[in-house]
Write a structure and sequence with these properties.
Strand order of the largest sheet: 1-2-3-4-5-6
Number of domains: 1
Structural class: alpha/beta
Shape: globular
Distance between the termini: 33 Å
Helix content: 40-55%
Order of helices and strands: EEEHEHEHEH
């Protein structure tokens, strides 16, 4: 189901997998990034979906300021609206993933400890979807 579409971002809901899919279609200006992520959060709230597949492979040259905005401004808005842990699977090009991790622009996995969201990075769709499915199953198992 198509929920949001612009020349730079498509947001769909995969009802079979219960996953929100955001596909960035090109590099974006900061105002487009902000508008896109706010549209994603609106769609997540509308669909009551906390499992997100974010395809950023076409967003060449992700800027440090964009990463900081996402971490410091956007992600703190998610939990108050969705009320539970949100899972974000990022699809990245292999060289972007290696570069982002090696230069320290993207925090390592421990950054997300004790936060109401989890983040993993992938270079292929199927492992990302499998991770999201495991997260869904983990939430249904009583503790």
């Amino acid at each position: 189901m198509n929920l949001f579409s612009t020349p730079y971002l498509e947001i769909t809901y995969d009802s079979d997998r219960q996953v929100l899919v955001a596909k960035w279609l090109r590099g974006v200006m900061p105002f487009e990034l902000h508008r896109g992520y706010h549209a994603l959060l609106d769609a997540a709230e509308e669909q009551q979906c906390r499992f997100w597949l974010l395809d950023v492979r076409r967003r060449a040259g992700i800027d440090s300021a964009d990463i900081l905005w996402t971490l410091n401004e956007f992600l703190p808005l998610v939990h108050p609206r969705l009320k539970r842990t949100t899972y974000l699977a990022f699809l990245m090009l292999p060289h972007h993933l290696a570069g982002d991790l090696s230069d320290g622009r993207v925090p390592d996995a421990t950054y997300y400890d004790n936060r109401p969201y989890r983040n993993e990075r992938f270079t292929e769709t199927e492992p990302a979807l499998e991770w999201l499915q495991q997260c869904q199953l983990m939430e249904t198992v009583p503790r």
